[in-house]
Specification:
three-stranded mixed beta sheet; 16 strands; about 15% strand; alpha/beta; eleven-stranded mixed beta sheet
């Protein structure tokens, strides 16, 4: 089987894999989609990949960005801007170009990768699509930002990496039998919020045609960072007075020193009351800007990339509270005290007319979640709503105000044996029910993380095939399932598709709690520009 492809940058040779049905497909791994972001390109917007001579070996994954792996090891390097392409067949004179699906991995913008470990195409390549996965810069490497735009570090380099990868797809994917005019972006967690960020960025216009955001939204509090270059320089032992002085320090240290210093900044992913040390921001206007306006206004006014869009969440997102072996949770963290997301808590004056609303909200939260005390169920419900569900539904309602493209909502509640295995791996008590944050990835990609693999049952296989078909049908046609109704602006009740053993519609997921969040959000107002520094 011929495994060579020639793209704009040169010729590459790939290898083959087998899908869930035992059928062979082609895979081209570790393809550079941008220049290595080294030296003077550290923290900067990506630049297109340079051509090479001869044949490039693309049979192994490219190195991921430096991060702490799910097994708590430091892995990767700054030279990380590589993507993988998987296809059932290469182009022929008679062949029809196939739909393209581009996956943004999750990991809170600080960990994860697009390699075969997290993004093995074994499930998705049972369908006739072209799948692209990628690495993008994480943490300090991808999300350091400075207010002084003359320094050339305005922020969002990681999101700009994703855009550069989409440009590469537009330019090259037809060589792999992919249709550059039928591209669906999808992602989970940070990957899901990345999808939502691309929805509102004019830099991504025309680079994708459908989108799926799984458990991620620009209105999730964990999806935003802040400017802290001076503090980081101080962690490296340098007292500086300006961003210019800080940049000099940060450019001169090794990647290992920089990464270790960044790890000393407290980062409680589920601490909704404060911004994280590194993540997307609203940039000052500049030539490479990914986003310069508050998403609230962009969505409400219809100034976003209006494409068929699926958003959704898992039935028990708040089980992320039990992920202490994978994410940092301070010992003194008290979810029942972190009641309001930082982007709602913006009245700064004692006499603000919104202060009364905020004070009343404390009691509302107590009544909604903690009337029976601070139980694990109460914490899970609260964290699931504050970190995921309420933000997803707030964004959806804003999009409906001036939207014209189909919008779909789902709740993932497929509790097959693989979900029970995931719970056991995480050390969760059997009493905890529901699908935890990120567990839906197990129905799209096999898990190859050491110590976290599972043996699939027939029930698992049936569910995987069903979920994969829904995702691929949407990528192919824009319609996910014949029984899945889109939401319209006139639809006061939110049509929600229950994605489980029984596929059916329901109205207003978590209705009582979401009605309260909706009312509070409307009273106080969302401001994603606050507390940047």
């Amino acid at each position: 089987m011929e495994r060579k492809v020639t793209i704009k940058q040169g010729t590459l040779v790939g290898t083959t894999g087998q899908n869930l049905n035992g059928e062979t497909f082609f895979k081209f791994l570790g393809i550079p989609y941008a220049k290595p972001p080294l030296g003077q390109l550290r923290f900067k917007a990506p630049e297109p990949a340079e051509p090479w001579e001869g044949v490039r070996d693309c049979t192994q994954d490219g190195t991921p960005n430096m991060s702490v792996s799910f097994t708590q090891e430091v892995v990767g390097s700054e030279d990380c801007l590589y993507l993988n392409v998987h296809t059932q067949r290469l182009p022929s004179s008679k062949g029809e170009l196939r739909p393209v699906m581009v996956f943004f991995h999750g990991g809170a913008f600080t960990l994860g990768n697009g390699t075969q470990q997290m993004c093995d195409p074994e499930y998705l390549l049972t369908e006739d699509v072209v799948l692209v996965s990628m690495n993008y810069r994480l943490g300090v490497f991808g999300f350091l930002s400075m207010e002084d735009v003359s320094l050339g570090i305005p922020g969002n380099a990681g999101l700009k990496d994703q855009t550069q990868a989409l440009k590469w797809v537009k330019e090259n994917i037809s060589k792999f039998n992919g249709d550059p005019d039928n591209v669906t972006i999808f992602g989970i967690s940070a990957g899901g919020s990345s999808v939502h960020f691309h929805l509102i960025s004019d830099k991504s216009k025309g680079l994708f045609h459908k989108a799926i955001a799984q458990s991620g939204s620009v209105f999730n509090p964990w999806a935003w960072g802040q400017r802290n270059s001076l503090l980081l320089a101080e962690k490296l032992g340098h007292k500086v007075k300006s961003e210019k002085e800080a940049l000099k320090v940060l450019m001169e240290v090794s990647s290992k020193e920089l990464f270790e210093a960044s790890q000393t900044l407290p980062d409680c992913i589920i601490g909704a009351h404060q911004r994280r040390p590194f993540g997307p921001i609203i940039e000052k206007p500049n030539l490479t800007a990914f986003i310069t306006e508050d998403p609230t206004g962009l969505l409400a006014s219809g100034r976003y990339n209006q494409v068929p869009f699926i958003q959704g969440f898992c039935s028990n997102e708040g089980l992320i509270y039990e992920f202490s072996k994978f994410i940092y949770i301070p010992e003194d963290f008290e979810p029942n005290k972190q009641l309001v997301p930082w982007y709602l808590n913006h009245p700064h004056k004692v006499h603000s007319p919104k202060l009364k609303t905020l004070l009343q909200w404390d009691q509302t939260i107590a009544d909604l979640y903690y009337k029976d005390g601070v139980t694990k169920k109460a914490i899970h419900d609260h964290l699931g709503d504050i970190c995921f569900t309420s933000g997803i539904l707030n964004g959806l309602r804003l999009q409906l105000k001036a939207g014209h493209a189909p919008q779909y909502l789902y709740k993932f509640c497929y509790e097959t044996p693989i979900i029970k295995t995931n719970r056991a791996i995480l050390g969760l008590d059997e009493a905890f029910k529901g699908v935890s944050h990120g567990a839906d990835q197990s129905f799209l990609f096999p898990n190859h993380i050491p110590g976290m693999t599972a043996v699939l049952t027939e029930e698992d296989l049936e569910a995987i095939r069903k979920v994969v078909k829904i995702w691929v049908d949407f990528a192919s046609t824009g319609t996910p399932h014949p029984d899945w109704e889109p939401i319209t602006p006139e639809d006061k009740d939110l049509n929600c598709f229950l994605l489980g053993k029984d596929l059916r519609m329901e109205r207003n997921p978590f209705e009582e709690r979401m009605v309260a969040w909706k009312g509070f959000t409307e009273d106080v107002g969302i401001d994603l520009n606050v507390n940047e520094n």
